[in-house]
Amino acid sequence: MSTRRYLSPRKRRTAVAVVLAALLAALTGAGAASATGSAAAAGPPTAYARHVAAPGAAPAEPAPPPYRVRKGDTLTAIARRLGVPLDRLYTVNRSVIGSDPNLLRPGQVLRAPAPGWTAPVDAEYRISARYGLPGDGWIAGYHTGVDLAVPTGTPVYSVGPGEVHSTSTEGAYGNHILIRMADGHYVLYAHLDRMSVAEGDRVEGGARIGDSGNTGNSTGPHLHFEVRTGTDYGTDVDPVAYLAGYGIDI
């Protein structure tokens, strides 16, 4: 025979209040967690907009400090003083110098690339899609690289020293190459027309690795340039900021 424990009206009211408070706390916590999850899914994490070092990466060799042009300077003399190839110095500063490399104006500020680093293309291009651009056309919900619109067949170069991690002709990226850089990052070159390297190849900055194209899910000829901290999709970082750390502007 069971015995029912008697609670006074006052104790019953206290017990009900305790239960209701616990339920309210649980519901409030779930709502906060849901709101946090929604915010995280709204776009690329803040960290993606910065140049963050990959785990185990070697410290990046910084680019030389900017140089301010003085009266009587020539680009050849400046390149010799900074210890960088003349053609690369001009390529990096083409937007500042203009079409004539022999025409310098005092006060112009030139940037010198870090030794062994260069832009992915040495041709006129238009940025057709910037990094982080939101859109439903991308699985991540935003653009994970930067698109350089260039004609099919434009030479594509490794931006720095590294080793070819993989090449592929499949998927949305079409013909693409993934290179593990000396600093531990991974650089992806996608929608290529031709690939001239293979898995395991060692490459230096400025080595031609293929030609730009229009393969895979592409709306026109361009190079998709992407930088990652790992091999997987979604580990991207800002490719423009990454190259700027080596004195390369795109």
Question: Could you explain the architecture of this structure?
Answer:
Strands 3, 4, 5, 6, 7, 8, 9, 10, 11 and 12 form a ten-stranded antiparallel beta sheet that branches. 23% of the residues lie in helices and 22% in strands. Mean pLDDT is 81; it is low at 1-5 and 25-59. It is α+β, with helices and mostly antiparallel strands. The protein is built from five helices and twelve strands. It has helices at residues 9-40, 75-82, 86-92, 94-97, 239-244; strands at 67-68, 109-110, 126-129, 146-149, 155-157, 162-168, 175-181, 186-195, 202-203, 208-212, 223-228, 236-237. The radius of gyration is 27 Å and the shape is globular.
Can you give keywords for this protein?
single chain, alpha+beta, two-stranded antiparallel ribbon, 12 strands, 22% strand, globular, disordered N terminus
